[in-house]
């Protein structure tokens, strides 16, 4: 495993932080999840399988759980011993909380001068909003992301998943992994500061860069693409199909398939710029042809012609799709009572040192004794 | 810089691949972007500043550009020399294309037995759909992600940014960084296989895990949260405000602030489960109070009470927001003609070895001579 020798003290809870440390755990790190006596609130969220939250199970595999009361002297002394022996510390407390607990960056550096300390927060550790409470939804709203979703007259729409939490978690994991690429003897104390809002802004892509170039935002175009046409969600005789026509070559293939190459002679459709200007008309031309047959039939025809296209799958269909199954994106794992519990799979596939399930998500405090014993043994040596 | 000694041969174009290699370049790697004589198609997408696509500029900083014709013997021989001397190779060709070019994993391993070869694609290198053409929009549709966005009767909606490309790029960068944490002498050839659809499925969070636990999908709830209430986008006297009430403590603070703690005595609102069941009614109670004042006033009151809340910013407002500016999420860089060109900033902030702008995005082939000279010099040694 790539991160086999790496030890991580994990003070995170709910999503952004646990998702970060799960990436590192999946890649081989020994992640010690510190939980208060009540446990990570995610243990109580969503439906359970044999007493274990399915949500918690999918985002906390490959970790060990230790219960410590960080408000007690004993608990704080133990966590400091763990930090002194760790490579990485991750937290997703509101800025200021670590300081108040006596775990400021200066204290952390004194405890462990080679530590990588990664802080995940809503707005970041600095700036006018640093002290504000935040949450995934707020980052979706304030990053511009929500505004980009939907048609011109629709209200702004959040994505149905906690995308800001997850993307911030990915950036945090990336920052930690890159920091671990520096050989340990050469490492200096490093404080990493990942903000959910920054993370979402970094993904604004052409929505941001058109502002840079023109001072104006691109129109909100729903399922269409603001820079390319035809592109979008079309109706078929029995449902929908998503078609992504990203360049002139693919438009040519699409018009050939739909037997409408004569449209290129129409000045409204001759170039991409013209088609974007006449978005509604070109959409109507394509739509009127696609409505004549089923999604499944069009899918085969379009893909055979090299045109990216797909059905819109609901979550159940996506999770049971043959490709999802083939890619092991759903893993059957043992449930606490010995039956089976599905969790999400590993998106990082590799030929060697691939992520594997070494441990299912731990019960609260499952490894407290084990880790305290390891600490005592390490002291004796 | 964390990845200072790392050399990357970058065969990617458009978004997912260039976003991956840009992360690694920002963290210090020497990224050699190989472009055909026509250049990366992204150079022609979106509006330009002094002849440079603003979109290309934001996703290709810190890289060097080399023009090679990979269909010529000379070009292929040069790229093989570069691969032999590299730590990492990244491509985002359709599966099969690398093999057809003579750059199969077996050939790559023969060229460089310590190489990290990272392949990014729509559906992955394996499985029933591996050979299908794909694109961000198709991954959004087939992963279940589009289905989660919107209200029950809305059609499925893609996000306004190429989220599947970007998330796949982040996973690819993470996989490469973790692989680089293995000391070079211990590295074996590694083939990494990142799929856009897998990447999006891994983010389905509670939308997936509720299926695992109950066999049913959660309802599509637009801007509300399927597991928590009240939560969502509310109207104020002059606009909207996003409020994320994630636990009972925050509900208590919200009801106190809105002077409606008596609602706890109503059995419909006493617990989170009850409030989720009576989503429309609790929304109406909260909405009727928020409509009485402005977004700005509520924002101060809510944040002072420790309740996560924020305005919905359009992209221009998000990019010019004081926090965005403070966090340097927009960087002013020199444009080709000497004027100024904004690009997106670095979401990874750290106290040492922080990402910096070492180079603006290169002109096509700007470093061809430089890199060919380096190759010749390396041979002489």
TrEMBL record, chains A, B:
One of its GO terms (molecular function) is transferase activity. Pfam families: CoA_transf_3. Gene3D superfamilies: Crotonobetainyl-coa:carnitine coa-transferase, domain 1, formyl-coa transferase, domain 3. Transmembrane segments: none annotated. Coiled coil: none annotated. Keywords: Transferase. The keyword Transferase applies. It comes from the Bacteria. InterPro entries: CoA-transferase_III_domain (IPR050483), CoA-Trfase_fam_III (IPR003673), CoA-Trfase_III_dom3_sf (IPR044855), CoA-Trfase_III_dom_1_sf (IPR023606). PANTHER family: SUCCINATE--HYDROXYMETHYLGLUTARATE COA-TRANSFERASE. This is CoA transferase. The lineage of its organism: Bacteria, Pseudomonadati, Pseudomonadota, Alphaproteobacteria, Rhodobacterales.
